[in-house]
Amino acid sequence: MxxxxxxxxxxxxxxxxxxxxxxxxxxxxxxxxxxLAEDGTVRVELQGACVTCPAQVATLRxxxxxxxxxxxxxxxxxxxxxxxxxPAPIPARPRS
Length: 96
Known about the structure:
The chain contains 3 helices and 3 strands, in the order H-E-E-H-H-E. It is α+β, with helices and mostly antiparallel strands.
């Protein structure tokens, strides 16, 4: 896959995830694209409430994966990676 094609494909996957993101955020979760392999496998990180949600497998298999495969036919599979269930802490300000 040429570099331009890979960048274009990655952007299409990002846009598809952006369309799904509002529903995930509404429930306190999120998804981040980690990798798009040359074979069409997409690796995503589930974040926030999605990490501990008992329905995460269903969300992945019946919402995220079909939407990605429909919008980006080059995607052949979606592989999840569980992230941290807590949002990243805000760094403390240095004391003057």
